[in-house]
Structure formats: C-alpha cells, structure tokens
C-alpha cells in the first residue's frame, strides 16, 4: 500500500516538473519556423501550373441523377495542401540562424538556394549565418513539426482561401509566435 502511495506521489511531482518545463518556447525559433512554413508553402504553391484543376466535392448522385462537384485549382486544393504540409518541415535543413550585423536581430533564414535557380544572387552572405551543426536544424524541424501539428487546420484554411498576408495572419494573429517579435515584417 505504501509503495503505491509513493508511486502516485512521484508521478504527480514528475508531471508538475514536466508541465512547467514545456511552457517556455524559444520565440526566435518558433517565429522563424512559422515564417519558414509560410515561405516554403508559398514557393511550392507557386511552382504548380495554375491551369491544373481538380474535382472536389461529394461524389454522391443527386435524386435527379446528377453529381454535384466543384472544380478548384490544384495548387490551393485541400488535397495538394495536405501533401505539401506532410513534407514542408523537411526543408528546414536549408535554414540556419542569421544575425543581422546592424541590428543584432537573430532569426532563422534560408541559406540554400532553391533548386533550379543557380543564379549568384540566390546565395546569401554566409558570414552572418551561424551553422551549429545538425542540432540547430533539428530544433527548427521540431518547431516546424509542432506548428504544423498544432495549426494544421488554420494553415489549410488560410492557404486554400488565398488570404492576403498569410505570414502575418498565421504567425501573429492565429499563433502569436511572432507577436512580440521586433522583426515580424522582415523577409526570410
């Protein structure tokens, strides 16, 4: 009996310590991950041929023998967005911590050029990046996966509706990851 009481007490103390440790998130990491998600999704959507359409809707037959379906652009369809969300965090290894030399503001920015580009202008100035090994990109990928898991429905609705300024809406208003940030309007 006493052993059971001790186990229950230990579990309660452990849960208190675990819950208090999860409350603090690195704002630079999560704000940058949120902005990177928007940037990567916008880029992926822009690469889809705007002429491609997909039939959506129910495939039930109405009493009059017709089917009600709707054609939407593939790039903004729920199906395509779900596929993009599954792989969006894989590109976080193309980001590294960047320190602005003038303002000393830290954020994660894309350092790797997009495939198919190759122009010299696509390469950033590497001297302001801090490459801390796989742990840094792993932390950004974990933050990305957490955001996608927590905000998947919001991300899907914002991108499917073609909302204006998705970055500001998702990262400031919906999630509050960048609200207290001094660099919310900067490009990645």
Describe the protein's architecture and organization.
- It is a single chain.
- The C terminus is likely disordered.
- The longest helix is centred in the last third of the chain and has 27 residues.
- The radius of gyration is 22 Å and the shape is elongated.
- It is mainly alpha-helical.
- α2 packs antiparallel against α5.
- The protein is 46% helix and 11% strand.
- It has a three-stranded antiparallel beta sheet. A two-stranded antiparallel ribbon has the order 1-2.
The number of strands is 5
Total of DSSP H or I helical runs spanning 4+ residues = 5
Major beta sheet summary: 3 strands, antiparallel
- Helix/sheet category: mainly alpha
Unreliable stretches (pLDDT < 50, length at least 5) are 14-22, 182-188
Task: Specify the helix fraction band.
Answer: 40-55%
Report the oligomer: single chain
Write down the overall mean pLDDT. 80
Whole-angstrom Rg: 22 Å
From the spread of the alpha carbons, the general shape counts as elongated
Strand content: 5-15%
Side-by-side strand order of the widest sheet:
4-3-5
Terminal Cα separation, in Å?
58 Å
């Amino acid at each position: 009996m006493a052993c059971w009481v001790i186990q229950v007490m230990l579990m309660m103390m452990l849960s208190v310590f675990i819950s208090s440790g999860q409350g603090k998130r690195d704002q630079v990491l999560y704000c940058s991950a949120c902005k990177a998600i928007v940037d990567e999704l916008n880029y992926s959507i822009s690469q889809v041929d705007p002429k491609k359409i997909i039939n959506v809707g129910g495939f039930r037959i109405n009493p009059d023998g017709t089917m009600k379906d709707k054609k939407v652009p593939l790039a903004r369809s729920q199906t395509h967005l779900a596929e993009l969300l599954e792989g969006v965090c894989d590109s976080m290894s193309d980001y590294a911590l960047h320190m602005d030399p003038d303002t000393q503001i830290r954020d994660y920015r894309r350092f790797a050029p997009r495939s198919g580009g190759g122009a010299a202008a696509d390469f950033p100035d590497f001297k302001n990046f801090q490459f801390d090994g796989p742990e840094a990109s792993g932390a950004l990928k974990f933050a990305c996966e957490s955001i996608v898991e927590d905000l998947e429905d919001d991300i899907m609705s914002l991108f499917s509706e073609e909302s204006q300024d998705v970055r500001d809406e998702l990262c400031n208003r919906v999630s509050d990851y960048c609200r207290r940030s001094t660099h919310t309007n900067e490009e990645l």
